[in-house]
Amino acid sequence: MRKKLIAANWKMYKTPDQARDFFRDILPLVHGHDRDEIVVCPTYLCLDAAVAAAKGSNVAIGAQNLHWEKEGAFTGEVNAAMLLAAGVTHVIIGHSERRQYFGETDDTVNLKLKSALEAGLVPIVCVGEVLEEREAGLTDDVLRRQCLRAFHKVSAKKAVRLVVAYEPVWAIGTGKTATPQMAADAHAIIRAQAAESFGQEFADKLRILYGGSVKPENAHALMSEEEIDGALVGGASLDPKSFAAIVKY
Ligand code: PEP
After folding, report:
1. Domain count of the chain?
2. Annotated catalytic, 167?
3. Terminal Cα-to-Cα distance of the chain (whole angstroms)
4. What's 190's domain CATH number?
5. Whose CA is nearest to atom 7 of ligand 1?
C-alpha cells in the first residue's frame, strides 16, 4: 500500500500573515488525520511563518522550487541546504508554470532532482502534456521523455524518496480535470517508465500524484483510483476549508 500524499501548491499567493491565518484555520480541521501525508508549499518568503505555524503538527512544509548549485552568484535563487535549514522537507520540481514561464527544461529538472535527493529533501517532480500534445496522441511519448530525462543518472537507491506528479498542463488552473481513467492511464505510463529506469520493485512503491483542478467535489473520485497516490492542488489549496476537504476526500 502506498500512503497517499496531498500537497498544496500556493504558487505566488499569500503573505506571511496570511500563511499564519491559513495554518490557524486548517490545523484543527486536519488534526489527527494520518491516513494521508499532508504537505503545504508556500512561497519562499512564507516558509519561515509556515514552518513555525505547522511545528508539531501533521502538516509538512515544502518549497516550490530550488537551485541545484551548492552556492554561488545566482541572484534570486535558493538551494537545497537553505531549504533544509529553514525546516523544509519537500520541494516541487519542474512545475509546468516554471517550464512555461521561466525556461525550466528536462535537463534543469534533472539537476534539481539530483540536488534535492542528495540533500535529503522529498522531490515532487512534475510532468505532463500540453493540450496539443494530447490531441496529437503524443501523451505517452511526452511523459516517457520527461521522466527519462528527469531520472537520467539517478540510481534507484538515491531516488528512494522520489514522488512524481502527473499534471496535464491543460487541466492546471483551467477548471478542466482529467477523468479518473485518463489520470490512471497516464500514471500507468509514468510507472512503466519508472520501472524501466529504476526496476519494477521501485516502480511499485513510487507515489504518483495527480494535479489539475482538483477540488473537494472531484477529489474522492480521483483518489479512489488505485493508480492515483495523492494530489497536487493549486487554486483549491488556498482556502483552508477547501484544502481540508480535499485531504479528507
Ligand atoms: C498546480 O498548480 O499544481 C495545480 C494543479 O493547480 P490547480 O489545482 O489550480 O489546477
Report:
1. 1
2. yes
3. 18
4. 3.20.20.70
5. 234
pLDDT at 52 over 90: yes
Which ligand 1 atom sits closest to the C-alpha of 215?
8
Question: Is the shortest distance between the CB of 234 and ligand 1 below 6 Å?
Answer: yes
Domain that includes residue 224, residue range? 5-248
Task: Judge if the beta carbon of residue 232 lies within 6 A of ligand 1.
Answer: yes
Summarised one tens digit per residue, pLDDT across range 97-128 is: 999 999 999 999 999 999 999 999 999 999 99
Rounded to whole angstroms, the Cα distance separating 92 from 107 reads 15
Determine contact, residues 102/77, Cβ cutoff 8 Å: no
Q: How far apart are CA 26 and CA 95, in angstroms?
A: 25
> Ligand 1 pocket, 233 CB below 6 A?
yes
Is 67 among the catalytic positions? no
- Over residues 166-220, the pLDDT tens digits come to 999 999 989 888 999 999 999 999 999 999 999 999 999 999 999 999 999 999 9
